[in-house]
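G., before I forget:
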Amino acid sequence: MVFRIGTDAHLYDDPDDVSIAPLLDSKFDSEKCEALKRLLALIAQGFDVSNYFPQVVKNVASQSLEVKKLVYLYLLHYAEKRPNEALLSINCFQKDLGDPNPLVRAWALRTMAGIRLHVIAPLVLVAVGKCARDPSVYVRKCAASALPKVHDLSLEEHTSAIEEIVGMLLNDRSPAVVGAAAAAFASVCPYNLSLVGRNYRKLCEILPDVEEWGQIVLIGILLRYVIARHGLVKESIMYSLQCTESSHSAKDGSDVDSGLVKESTDLSGTCDSEFVNTVSRCYMEGPDEYLSRSSCANRESFELNGAQFTSGKSNDDVKILLYSTSPLLWSNNSAVVLAAAGVHWVMAPKEDVKRIIKPILYLLRSSNASKYVVLRNIQVFAKAMPSLFAPYFEDFFIFSSESYQIKALKLEILSYIATDSSISSIFKEFQDYIRDPDRRFAADTVAVIGLCVQRLPKMAHICVDGLLALTRQEFVTEDFGFEDQEAGILTQVIMSIKSIIKQDPPSHEKVIIQLVRRLDSVKVPAARAMIIWMVGEYSSLGEIIPRMLTTVLKYLAWGFPSEAPETKLQILNTVCKVLEGATGDDLWTFKKIFSYLIELAECDLNYDLRDRARLLKKLPSCNLVSLGLEEETNDLPENDLLHIVAECILGRQTRKVKPESFSYRYYLPGSLSQIVLHAAPGYEPLPRPCSLLLDDLNVAEGTSEMKRAADYSGTDDYGSSSDPSDEESASDYGSQRSVTESSGSDRGDDSEFTSEGNYNADPLIQISDIGNASENQNGVSQSSPANLGELMSNKALESWLDEQPGSSNPGLPKQSQVRISSARISVGDVGKRVKQKSYSLLDPASGNGLKVDYSFSSEISSISRLLVCIEVFFKNCSSEIISEITLVDEESNRAFDSADKTAVVNESSLTSSDDVPTLVPMESIVSLEPGQTTRRILQVRFHHHLLPLKLALYCDGKKLPIKLRPDIGYFVKPLPMDVEVFIDKESRLPGMFEYARSCTFTDHIVELNKENGDSLLVKDKFLAICESLALKMLSNANLCIVSVDMPIATNLDDASGLRLRFSSEILSSSIPCLITLGVEGKCTDPLNLSIKVNCEETVFGLNLLNRIANFLVEPALS
Amino acid sequence: MLQCIFLLSDSGEVMLEKQLTGHRVDRSICDWFWDHVISQGDSFKSQPVIASPTHYLFQVVREGITFLACTQVEMPPLMGIEFLCRVSDVLSDYLGGLNEDVIKDNFVIVYELLDEMIDNGFPLTTEANILREMIAPPNIVSKVLSVVTGNSSNVSDTLPGATRSCIPWRAAEPKYANNEVYVDLVEEMDAVINRDGALVKCEVYGEVRVNSHLSGLPDLTLSFANPSILDDVRFHPCVRFRPWESHQVLSFVPPDGEFKLMSYRIKKLKSTPLYVKPQLTSDAGKCRVNVLVGIRNDPGKTIDSITLEFQLPPCILSADLNSNHGTVNILGNKICSWTIGRIPKDKTPSLSGTLLLETELERLHVFPTFRVGFRIMGVALSGLQIDKLDLKTAPSRLYKGFRALTRAGEFEVRS
């Protein structure tokens, strides 16, 4: 009693001995606590206390964390039952979500998501989106685990938004979050493997650091991804499926790999190839489909070809998966070990699979419950590749304390893995087991001895001797009312002996004789029947048995009336069989015995027996009551027929029984279905190899792809744009896009015009669904129903959305109040279509026939970051040769003083700025033929990004003053980055670092009209708009495209919600400069663009913004 | 994912239910479960995975308490089982043992713990050291406080530092006046001796338990003198895999407090510290039993808590057993247990007596298996030796301690 003082014992014992309601309304937290504890006690004991709901909900606002926690516990239990009252608590959760204490935020989110109300699903989603970017790891983790709840609640509505958040969390820096995100992925969108592909390498690397429960799920996801992406591994156990099914292809394939495989198969020893085949097929397509199909002998529909296999030795993705899962085999958590072992089992080359053995065997020492599960998995492994476990047979020796199921499993496994070298010690063990008090287990042991001998015929004699010795033991044959179990053992002994004899009857002649001798003492009907069956079956075997037949049959006939029905039937059969092969003198005796037995049987009490007697009587070999008739009836056709029937019925059944594995079901290692032996809801076999197409791959490797694309547009392609041959390649520029599930089938038509050839060119636009954080951040869902609006004001929601927990950005832009779920596409490379605008530096009229044009180059100067590269074209329009052309800085001759006065802000901080010349001296052009064009790259340092630079052009000895106008669009260089990084950076540049303007955009109309006019191809309007926007931007500024967000929920004509992101950094200061274009309006009309620039350099940013707005308004160059 | 967790007492009463997801599981599943336990007996209780008509059940039984978890969808069964084991470990750690009363008395803590340990059916925080920071275990002080003031909160109002730091198992930068780290080797010996008296197998499963109270962010390295004898290992998440792969060195940043650093297995040991020689001869409806226990290999330290236990075969009517040392008890379920304690210097403990068989039986044909228990302080029987424990940037006062202990695991002698 003393120990119970101070605990909550009294509350559990008498939860309702005081009235709870007043306590709930009390002013004191301690009394509230007590009341809530009492309610909890009632819940624990299974009472319904939901009638206190309104009072409890009121307390959600309590400041005490303990009260809060208890209220949450209560709410979660009843929220579904009392939806209307539960809504009352929403406001409080929202307040808590803004609490500075991460624990409070996490609890609020967990509870809010746990209240299963359809109407609040949009709110929860917004909250989850916000918490997914919380500074606290714990809160982000809770956000990840809240996602399945939201998904479960709102079903299809918000799938894409949820998947975006999943993608974002999968990319989180903290391993703890990634683990929870993996769990969310598995329950929200297990098929969206492209989401994994994007981060595959990173996920593999982070895997050992992920918390253990996340590891279990993540391992499975990665395995599925690799198979869907690269297919199965040639060297692995799964390859046997191809070896056996389409061995011809291996032959004509003539590749070295298949040879290697054969070697390795030999190396790793024997493995039951047919069984492995079944198992691996079951893994691939689920046993139900496979088995149903194999029964109708139509296996064609699932054909694997060589292309669906990859080599584990050369494929990096496979290697990294195996490498990162192998340390997990040392995990403390048995589920992790088994999951990792499963990956190796399916994916690892056969010779490497053995590394999973020791860790799996170690699992046998963990709790009894997991021991059973592990053994069930080993059972399949050991059957498929016995050689793996053969050296570890001692681990399957049995402790008396183990449960019967475990003992039975261990015995079965021992029978698979016994080898010639280990069998003797295994038999020694078996001898001990037979004397175990658990008789069912002893019977099983006897059965397993039979199985072992079937595998290892060498041991047959020793085993049979041992088994015969057992039949001699008093305890099994003793007369007293034998217990069922003992009888079972004896039957099992005879059965095992029978199966051993069947393998090689001639060498076991003496065994049969011994058994027949024991007939007198063996009293168990089933065992007797079996011995008698053997007499009939092997009646003509060897020398001795035929001679003793007469005696045996006489003995049987004599005892016939007192036998059990089972035995009687066998006696009849046996006599028949003996008659069949009998000749000479014995025949007469046998016939007499037979007719005697038939007479007895025909008036037996058992109707089966009577029927059998009648049937046998009609059979020709038995129906020879009068010998003389034999020859006469011989020529009758039906008599021949009867002979055949007799042959069939009594003849030798030498046909082998098919192994039982075909009726068995196999599921993936470590799955629940493998334990319960039926497909549990939600069980998925491995994905089809290589089902993740190349299109997806682009998405999958989106990050690197995007970087490369950015590099292209930055450097290489500018050069090629001067190449006229590229102009035409731009026209057949296709869009290679894969439509993910989320973006729906309405875009399915687009992929039709994707041509294979285009793959070589970099894809223009790919849809992916990168987690779109800023979308989630902004605004309340319009779809939140009206009744919700009554209960809570939108203001409240906005206010908590705005006040960020912790320190992060105070003033987030509220761009739109409409939450648009959107997919994101990334524009790869429009570089080939980018035409840089060229400006005139000197027109032929004023330059004596010399025409000088320039355009800004996207090249980056290698000398100094203050220099801008300009491409200058000199063209001789006159009819004479112009010589000695050179460009110099006019002011370079003068003192620097005037230049310093105009020195610009961005230079002031740089110490080295003075060393950089205004113009890197140009290599002069010696002479220019008439009509000839020469190109030079100039590197210029503009003193200001708006003011023109005065230069002097010398040609033919004359000096011509010229002005070079800067273009601020080329004071930046592309800064490739991820969307996540972009959003992250953007959120850190709010308020005064953010400038926005709007303008209209018309370029796309031309594009669309052209499209409609000249081709039958139905091109997506959005795509056209994106293209023309991107083109416009990239031709006027040195940027890097980060992403394109497509609206999906809206109708096809409305481009609102389209969003392009560009990133760059200022050349001189390396300060990032982020540009976002938002589109509003109808596709066919001029669009309203909102341009937003985030940049720390205020002046620069504003000027850039103006510049962008200007060139976007400019009509397109025709 | 798991949908619900039930805690059942050994009489089948549902002590606690915790719904984890919106898909509520009705209590009637427990009735179904218990009906089957009653009708099928122990064989049902030893099934860890059960497919009921409506749900898949995972069950783990600890100290008479049945932990039952339900799910309706495919999930790794080991995950469910391992989680339930974790729950039972944490609970018995918190409540100082597991039994019906202690769970009922502390049901609020159990609820709070379950709520932290699992969220929406997926395990959330299972590291014991971190849970301790979130929910204070009941102790004398809090009990007294609650009696005196009528108020005590065991819910911590701040998030444990560990969830903030980059090392999820360690609270951020604790401070200790005395820096101490203790390493214990705890080994369990499994052995099977067959009817001929031959040692069939003998192996050791050991754990390295560390109790660390170190300030700051200590980086420890533990190395063994003879790591080659280790057959297989398993690690706490804090152990870095690569140093072990290359040099067999344990490099880790420990959690604060007590934890299991690694467990290992050493196979094919040559001998056991004790011998047990059972002799059973039976005729004429009787069976004479004589069991001798003695020291075979002196481990150098005293062997204590020696016990011997065996289940009498079902065909025995009565037993009359006596020993020359220690006490013999025959329990209700026909288990005979002989508590020896230490082996006296002057004599060899022996158990002798006769068993009376059922009337029709002439001889005994099934033979019991003897389970042996013992404990040896100060010795790791496997021979594993810790070479050294190093601390990067060691504080001025660091106390390191090592201990070892061996006890019997599954030690069976067949007769």
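The mean pLDDT of chain B is 84. The radius of gyration of chain B is 25 Å.

More on Monday.
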